[in-house]
Design a protein that fits this description.
Layout: E1 15-17, H1 26-32, H2 42-59, E2 64-69, H3 72-83, E3 89-93, H4 97-108, E4 112-116, H5 126-135, E5 141-147, E6 149-150, E7 155-156, H6 159-169, E8 174-178, E9 197-201, E10 212-217, H7 219-225, H8 237-241, H9 254-271, H10 273-294, E11 301-302, E12 314-318, H11 325-336, E13 338-342, E14 351-355, H12 362-379, H13 387-395
Parallel strand pairs: 1-13, 3-4, 3-5, 5-8, 8-9
Antiparallel strand pairs: 2-10, 6-7, 9-10, 11-12, 12-14, 13-14
């Protein structure tokens, strides 16, 4: 094939191993294909409120939930706009691309951003968080923002340790947590961990299409909302509280709720939420075993270097020096119909990412790993063959 020819699309179904959006179960797809209904109809209200209770169960909260038509970024903007005022300070704990992204969003909204900087391969040092909070004797910091699972680096940040740092400093700042790539894949305990606002989205662990997002909000955060001065209209929680469904100032995306009802049924009744978490841990361990095996012969290696912070929903793989991760991903896609996640921000071309969250099982993971190894061989990426056997050894 010449350089000018368009690659022919491989036969067979797309093998999707991105870390979000994720694969959607057939029964959820069918549920979202529900005919149009009146969102003011009491029959839909039963579905809606059942879904709200289900979200509270997976967030492990008894507090308030607000929903939006938009991706997780919409929920983050709603969170900031409803809790802060111009000139307020938020302390952002660095973990990768998305922690930086929320910092840039806060800056654009007129909020002062203070960052606890970190090496992206290790994540924020909790001791540095404690020091930053202890130094803020005047309590200028109004909120602390942390990404529970950093999708760009394959890293989990322990939120209970952040809560402990706040408590040790006697600091009144709100604790804001991004659960977008952790909820329903990793255990999350909003009330137990003292999280004041938890931001989530539909397209990852909840196994739904992109476009529905939400914020779990504590009573303390609702009190702070009363004095927030940042501009807001569609995202205004006070206005939402006056609506019959306590969310959505416009049309309610009814189809999402039929899909969400089915997704919650699959996780809670058919599999059991604790089993969902155990499955994610099991499959993530297999992926990491394969990458660690490939790392021989100067091959790819795990980007995250802190085992206690390994993510159970996504693994970021650092390519060998001089090897372009995006070129490798094109080989995987164009030759074998395998879609992998790319590096974000400064990691573009340096890493690729394997998503292992949502609706997946052992054959899907092993198929992904086998094709990654095949693509590495075709693309001339140095590695030690046999990563799939290493994965099988953890699963057997």
């Amino acid at each position: 094939m010449s350089a000018s020819e368009t690659p022919r699309k491989p036969r067979g179904r797309l093998f999707f191993a991105n870390p979000g959006p994720t694969n959607i179960p057939d029964s959820v797809l069918l549920a979202t294909a529900h005919h149009t209904v009146d969102f003011a109809d009491p029959a839909f209200g039963e579905v809606y409120w059942a879904c709200i209770e289900g979200l509270k169960r997976v967030l492990k909260t008894q507090q308030e939930i607000f929903l939006y038509t938009g991706s997780g970024h919409a929920a983050w903007e709603a969170c900031l706009a409803n809790l802060l005022s111009p000139g307020d300070t938020i302390l952002v704990l660095e973990s990768g691309h998305f922690s930086q992204s929320w910092g840039r969003m806060a800056t654009d909204l007129g909020v002062e951003v203070q960052t606890v900087a970190a090496d992206w391969r290790r994540g924020v040092d909790i001791a540095a968080v404690k020091a930053a909070l202890a130094a803020d004797t005047g309590h200028a910091i109004k909120a602390v923002g942390v990404v529970h699972n950093e999708t760009s680096t394959g890293m989990m940040i322990p939120i209970p340790e952040v809560r402990a740092a706040l408590d040790a400093a006697g600091h009144p700042a709100l604790l804001l947590a991004d659960t977008i790539s952790s909820l329903c894949s990793l255990d999350f305990r909003m009330d137990e961990w003292g999280v004041d606002a938890a931001v989530g989205g539909s397209q990852k662990g909840l196994m739904l299409p992109t476009g529905l997002s939400f914020t779990g909000v504590s009573h303390k955060a609702l009190k702070a909302h009363e004095s927030s001065k940042l501009p807001k209209h569609y995202f205004n929680w006070s206005a939402m509280m006056k609506r019959p469904l306590k969310s959505f100032l416009g049309t309610v995306p009814t189809s999402f709720f039929f899909g969400l009802q089915e997704s919650l049924r699959l996780m809670e009744q058919e599999e059991g939420l604790e089993n969902v978490f155990a499955r994610h841990t099991r499959l993530a361990t297999a992926v990491r075993a394969a990458v660690q095996h490939w790392s021989g012969n100067n091959g790819p290696q795990l980007f995250c270097t802190t085992p206690s912070r390994y993510s159970d929903s996504v693994t970021a793989v650092l390519m060998p020096e001089g090897v372009d991760g995006d070129v490798f991903r094109r080989v995987a896609m164009q030759r074998f119909n395998l879609s992998l996640g790319g590096g974000l921000g400064p990691l573009a071309g340096k890493v690729f990412r394997i998503g292992h969250l949502g609706d997946l099982n052992e054959p899907m993971i092993l198929g992904t790993l086998a094709t990654v190894e095949l693509a590495m061989k075709v693309a001339g990426v140095p590695h030690t063959p046999g990563g799939v056997d290493a994965a099988i050894a953890t699963l057997a």
